[in-house]
Amino acid sequence: MAAGMDPEVAEPNLPETYNAFFYGTLMAPEVLCRVIYGASNHPSTSLTITPALLYDYCRHRVRFADYPAIISEPGHTVRGTYVTGLTPSNMRNLDYFEGSQYERKVVTVKILTPKDKEHTHGASAIMAEAVETGEEKEAQTYVFTDLNALEKGEWDFEFFRREKMKNWADESEEYAEVDAKAAKTNESEIGIHEFLDQPDPTGGRGIKTAMGKELKELADKKREEKWILEEKKRIAKEKSKCQGTIG
Question: Which residue, of 57, 69, 115, 127, has the fewest CB within 10 Å?
Answer without folding.
Answer: 115
